[in-house]
Amino acid sequence: MTAVPLLEIRNLTVEFATRRGAVQAVKSIDVSVAKGETVAIVGESGSGKSVTSYAVVRILDRAGRVAEGTISFSGVDLVAADEAQMRDLRGREISMIFQNPRAALNPIRKVGKQIEDVLLQHVQATRATAKEKAVEALTKVKIARPEERYDAYPFELSGGMCQRVVIALALACQPQLLIADEPTTGLDVTTQKAVMDLIVELTRERGMSTILITHDLGLAAAYCDKVVVMEKGKVVETALASEIFRNPQHPYTRRLMQATPRLGTSLADLLLDAPQTVPAEARTAVTEPKPAAEAGPLMQVENLVKEYPRAATGALLAKLMGKAEPEKPAFRAVDGISFSIARGETLGLVGESGCGKSTTSMMVTRLIDPSGGKIIFDGTDIGAIPAKQFAASPHRRRIQMVFQDPTDSLNPRFTAERAIADPIMRMGAVKGRDALRARCEDLARLVGLPVELIDRFPHQLSGGQKARVGIARAIALDPDLVILDEPTAALDVSVQAVVLNLLEELKGRLGMSYLFVSHDLNVVRLLCDRVIVMKTGSIVEEGTAEEVLGDPKAEYTRELLTAIPHPLL
Amino acid sequence: MNDMAKVEPAPAQAIPAEPAPTLRFEAPPSTSLWAHARHIVAENPVTGLAFGLFALILLAAIFGPSIVPYDPLASNTNAALQAPSRAHWFGTDQLGRDIFSRVVAATRLDFSIAIFSVALVFLMGGLAGVMAGFYGGWIDKVVGRVADTIMAFPLFVLAMGIVAALGNSVGNIVLATAIINFPLYARVARAEANVRRDAGFVQAARLSGNSDWRLLLTQIVPNIMPIMAVQMSLTMGYAILNAAGLSFIGLGVRPPTPEWGIMVAEGASFIVSGEWWIAFFPGLALMIAVFCFNLLGDGVRDLVDPQRRN
Amino acid sequence: MLRMIGQRLMTTIPSVIGVIIVTFLLTRVLPGDTAAYFAGPAASPQAIIEIRSKLGLDQPLPVQFVSYVTALVKGDLGTSLTTGQPVTADLAARLPASAELTLAGLLLAMAVALPLGILAAVKQGSWIDHLCRVVATAGVSLPVFFTGLLLVYVFYFLLGWSPAPLGRLDVFASEPPRVTGLLLIDTLLARDFETFRGAFAQLILPAVTLAIFSLAPITRMTRASMLAVLGADFVRTARASGLTNRKVIGTYAFRNAMLPVVTTLGMVFSFLLGANVLVEKVFAWPGVGSYAVEALIASDYAPIQGFVLTMAILYVALNLMIDVLYGVIDPRVRLEG
Amino acid sequence: MITRRTAIAAGLAAPFVARSQAQAQAVGRAETLLLVQEYGPNSLDMQGIGSSQPVNGVALNCYDRLLRFKPVPIPGGGGNTISMGELEGELAESWQVASDGMSCTFKLRDATFHSGRKVTATDVKWSLDRACTIGGFATTQMNAGSLEKPEQFVVVDEKTFRVDFIRKDKMTLPNLAVTIPFVFDSELAIKNGGGDPHAKEWLKNNIAGSGAYKVESWKPGVETIYVRNDDWKCGKLPQLRRIIARDIASPSTRRALMERGDADVSYGLPPKDFKDLLDAGKVNVVGVPIPNGVWGCYLNTQVGPFKDVRLRQAVAWVMPYEKILQASLFGRGVSMAGGTDPKVAWPQPFPYTSDVAKAKALVDAAGGPFSTTLYFDAGNATVAEPMAVLIKEALAAIGITVEINKVPGANFRTEIAKKTNPMVLNRFAGWLDYPDYYLFWTMHGNNSIFNIAAYQNPALDKLVDAARFAPDKASYDANVIDFVKLVENEVPMVPINQPTHDVALQKAIGGYQFQPCREPDFRYLTKG
């Protein structure tokens, strides 16, 4: 379909001025979007996909500028347009929605007012009709009770609701082109489905063109006509969505496809034609699981509870006057769950945000104290030891954890080596600087981190490298149980594939057991032997990975599975 | 007048300060401190100026008393109240003492007032704040109440009360400055420690078997240093202003020791009578020092903050 | 909102009590023997003892404290020996003078510092940014009494532009009927524009001195919080939806940036009130600051305690007002409170 | 409905009304005097306990006394001063000392109080009884002139009043002319006294007198406004109708006001400013060497190094008299160095000059170098501080290292009351200008608070007491010469200089009258 292109990007190059001279984020790319067409720009972080969209709307920050190339939007060259002309286009002809919806709205201004601002700016309404038009925009995005929501503030709305308001804001002036920059990242998978359905429905209904920027191939496949794949600032492939998934041409696209966890692939498949990053010899040596002090599961959790007292509603004054409101029942984040982890097993803990899976993992690693129930680890109830004293107990070294956000989990003022060495210095038997250095280098090699990188600060390492440092630190003392709290959620798909394989390797080599906490069912399917599905603090289903994810018994699990977008295969 | 609580509490709801889509690039290995410092100076001329002035003040403080042309204490009544001339670059004061020598000689005293005040208030306020932010509970309440009580005092009158009560020695001026700055440091340290208490790397450190006390010293305090550095540089400026204020109402340093504050206070009564230089030059030195300390804050923060070093 | 105010009051009561105790001890620690000072130069030891008992200073400290607190509850702050008047009367007469001066100074500082801060933030890194920082820092680098005297020397003594620094009103001007105690307002209420102009002229120089000194913290704070807000996502959304620069910076960015600035203003005002002692001394301004200093030098307990207590209560009221203002600006605080 | 136009019109009208009222005042500007001072009175009753120095001015101008000092032209011109011996009647029309010299009878003039009531002898008795019994400074001052007991005061009849003497004391009559023994409107005071026989509280805030001025408004710490009492009978009716005395703390501001001509009279400027004003010649500066006033360096004779007289003499020999007069008083004083033979006068130069060699010799003889501290009152730091620095430097030359301690006002009295400080710089000036009066206060064995050197010498006490109550001039002169010779040798206090009491007046202001209490006397001032 050779429709007249609404947006024609020709030979676009965008440069950023940094300390070491200009760095090209986007290198002479060509993208075209026809009227009514939905195009996905797919790529990993640093591929330049967001920069392209910012260049189109010309909201690059001060350091960035369009070095060469043209962006023509229905005949008008946006690169040459002056600021006043651009300002008329933004919001009226081209509008954008961003990631992290709650932050994208002004926290101290009513959402209705924010929509009115755009309407009034682009003379789509007068002072009198502004409110009515805003409410109308809210109804269009299927927000319940729009009049009420008009006066609401962003912090009073849920993530999904905020994203609907952002969409309403973007479509208020009926623009011709909508650019959506990772609109659903960070939302629950069910909310993600609802938001994407809404976007596609509204844009199709009005014959608008849409650019969806995402790192999730599944999303691109399910919702877009054409897919543009970018790698390190270059467009490596452009093809119809149906085409690209059946036979991707460019090797990078193929690798990307391959690395995306989905039904019917195994963990190893993810790395099929990826360069070998895990050293060959590390793959072969497989040792048996650790000799057990006693028979029976490594860890037995019985009736675990965690309560948070409701914020003291009645003010101190009210209490004094004796008319404080009745004390609401404490909020139960974890509502009496029991499960066990066998030696050498990977147990998956799955559920949407707020279901209590992270709280459970914090209790199991003894970072916070349970309100009730037992945590029996290799025979002793470690739940009884208060978290404050647990640092000194011998069991400390046997339970470790890999954190979700690698950047946040590394002390910015410690080099990678110092971070890895910290547990060894505290509890390890290694004495002397050189021995410590050697041990750290072994661990680095073990997790596939180039040895010369361990002298760097965290902010000088990539996401994948930081994740490896976190893992090296966790296994430094040869623990029995490692809790993985969404270890790859913050990583790019290709890096995620490598890290997941690394974790599988290490479990085999060091005979550890894993508790794998995640909201991504595809990843859980690849890694876990058994799976537990949690919802609002209790377990809704438990069983082997195949049973639970193959044909789930609980309605909630089924709902989770259907919400996952997967390519048209 | 003392450091009006040169307040810079981190914005309460910590809106992410990360500017819009700057790109994170994989950087080459870290450059040396010296190269990094040179880079900051190039990037921000004002900070360069601040570092230059600081070096000048430091030199004057160390070598001052030995290189001055006249004895700062020697009076010479028949050369009293002479305007700046080649013999006396900054002119002479009421007793004929050479003002240039006194200004240079005073640098050491004023510099130490600034340094000791800041050190004392960092130890008192900073650590108390960090403990309050980290442990919370009753420590937080106690530190909070003490800070509020001091804040409720009219700060300058409190400083006067302390100096009047304990006598106007340099030590008491330093103590008074430290006490009136306590709430500011406690508040800033508490906020920063509170934000970092549950950070990933702190949890990880707990997992590695670090006791709370060690966590504080190795993980939390080093990470709040950049912010404290800015605050400390501001306080250095205000410590000297505080000494000057106290001198103006007669509670300053004991005569005849040369100190900028007291020299400006004495010179102030000569402005109207035309001998402007008596107060002008110590005032200028005071201004340059306070000016330098204030601007130094940003420079020090860039230097200390590893993020900036790529 | 009421609950928040209630909570706020509950937390400040201990600090006000703390202030009372500390002031009492601080005054008792002052080395000067008040009785000796007020017995006059040629007083015989017997006369000094007589005055000491008259002032009740010979009783043990706890007894003195109890009598002080009971008097306090009755609202009697004692009489000042320096001015011979009851402290309450002195403070009532002098507080408006200091308040008027400090308010004028603060408003002037805000009028200059806020735009300066915004400009520095919007044009970050440019020469304007450096200029704003240098100008603000220069203002605060000079001791305030020095700036005051310099201004008097230049604008009154040399140029004669500003009126004689004689205090709040020209000697021959008639004082308007006292309503709020703030001359500018009282003269307007009394529609006496000529005295208003006179009072305004007297106020300019001291207010400018104070303003110069409070420029730096406000500018720095405004710049820092504006920078943080300008980097926030919602500013990017506002720009992406085509709103004008004025709207983006004015309604969206600035209003959000005002929150930390408001706290700074609160602290700066409460600080200035106590600290404009030196300005009051130079401009013969009959404020509370100079009153307290005179009392402190003469070791006259009653005015010091009265002054500090008033400042503490004012500080509490001020913080309360800031919290209310916070609630007005930021709905999150209002609803959580 | 007030439209904008009417509002503006009203606005315009208002100032006219205000201006005319101001005009009334403007006319008064020619007869109004603006005086700027460092700080104003803290009470209106000089006899009250804790009254500060400026309250003397209120007593001087708003109350009358039986006698007052006769104006005597200042040698250098520029106004009048007083001399101890010459008195004139104020409330007293005439007075007669009894033949046995043990009493004095006063005939009262028919003068009226501000309340319109006639002044009677009972009012005089009530007032003098009050002065003797109220305690504090008033009683001490009355005792200094042998006015000690109410029984001494006798009401002969409505218009005659007699004072019986306890002893023949040449200071008794002059003591009736100082500010303390002023006459109250006793009926008014008792009526409002509210039970207090001395009506202290009421009289602290109200005037009940017959003086040349009344207090129109008094705002402590801000300003005091006096207005003339038109039916004042005790002297020529003052020319000035209204006096505004405004408190301006900062000396620089006061000087600027004088130079710009916005203030008519200013007291208490630093000597440097007075010298500059004098040299510039734009305003008149009238200086009167303060009678009986001496800046002295008191050397503790009981405690510390200066017990040894040789060391005290060494300090006298090395004192930088000239430098101090130049750099701290800027010439506004008389040097107390290089005196020849003792005379019947006080203050008088001692026979010491700046002679480092002699001082060094004395120090070596007395045991060589040592270190000590020098105290002075922060209140008069403008003069005392430079003086202290110069002394420290001079003493260093002969091996005595001195640490300077600047003591805030309230603490200074406590410090000197302890009598333990080795060296103290202080200025003392008695109201009654007699040598024996000065020594009575500063060196007599009764160890008053002003005897800072804590000097105990029975021989000196005998001479001073003898001089005080000497029957005739010859024995008085002999006693004075003897005790001056003794003190010049013993040097418990090294006199440095006699400071002048300066006042700056615009050219248009005349009739300056110096009073021993050193407060402005409005009654003689003229303007225009």
Outline the structure in words.
The complex is a heterotetramer of chains A (569), B (310), C (337) and D (528). Chain A is of the alpha/beta class and 569 residues long. Among the domains of chain A are: 142 residues, P-loop containing nucleotide triphosphate hydrolases (Rossmann fold); 71 residues, no CATH class. Chain A is built from 21 helices and 20 strands. In chain A, β14 and β15 form a beta hairpin. The radius of gyration of chain A is 26 Å and the shape is globular. About 2% of the residues of chain A have low confidence. Chain B is mainly alpha-helical and 310 residues long. Chain B has one domain: MetI-like fold, CATH 1.10.3720.10. The mean pLDDT of chain C is 83. Chain C contains 15 helices and no strands. In chain C, α9 packs across α11 and α11 runs antiparallel to α14. Chain C is mainly α and 337 residues long. Chain D is of the alpha+beta class and 528 residues long. Chain D is globular. Chains A and C meet through α2, α3, α6 and α12 of A and α1, α10, α11 and α15 of C.
Assigned CATH superfamily of the domain at 95-285 and 313-336 in chain C = MetI-like
CATH structural architecture of the domain at 95-285 and 313-336 in chain C: Orthogonal Bundle
Number of strands of chain B: 0
Secondary structure tally, helices of chain B: 10
Question: Could you name the CATH class of chain B?
Answer: Mainly Alpha
Overall morphology of chain B:
globular
The secondary structure category of chain C is: mainly alpha
- What is the N-to-C order of secondary-structure elements of chain B (H for helix, E for strand)? HHHHHHHHHH
Structural domain tally of chain B:
1
Gyration radius of chain C (Cα, Å) is 24 Å
Profile the largest sheet of chain C. none
What is the name of the CATH topology of the domain at 95-285 and 313-336 in chain C? MetI-like fold
Radius of gyration of chain B from the CA trace? 22 Å
Stretches of chain B where pLDDT is under 50 for at least 5 consecutive residues are: 1-30
Properties at a glance:
B: 310 residues; MetI-like fold; 10 helices; 0% strand; globular; disordered N terminus; C: 337 residues; mainly alpha
The gist of it:
The complex is a heterotetramer of chains A (569), B (310), C (337) and D (528). Chain C is mainly α and 337 residues long.
Which helices and strands appear, and what pairs or packs with what?
The complex is a heterotetramer of chains A (569), B (310), C (337) and D (528).
Chain B (H helix, E strand, L loop, with lengths): L32 H11 L1 H23 L31 H37 L1 H16 L2 H12 L3 H28 L2 H8 L4 H37 L11 H12 L5 H28 L6
Chain C lengths: L1 H28 L4 H6 L5 H10 L6 H13 L13 H36 L4 H14 L3 H15 L24 H7 L3 H38 L2 H8 L4 H31 L1 H6 L5 H10 L3 H29 L1 H6 L1
Chain D lengths: L3 H26 L2 E6 L17 H8 L4 E3 L2 E2 L6 E2 L5 E3 L2 E6 L5 E6 L12 H13 L2 H9 L8 E5 L2 E5 L7 H6 L8 H8 L6 H6 L7 E7 L3 E6 L13 E6 L3 H10 L4 E3 L3 H10 L3 E6 L3 E7 L9 H10 L2 H7 L5 E3 L20 H10 L4 E8 L3 H17 L2 E8 L1 H10 L4 E7 L5 H8 L15 H11 L4 H18 L2 E13 L3 E2 L15 E2 L1
Helix pairs in contact in D: 10-12, 15-16, 16-17
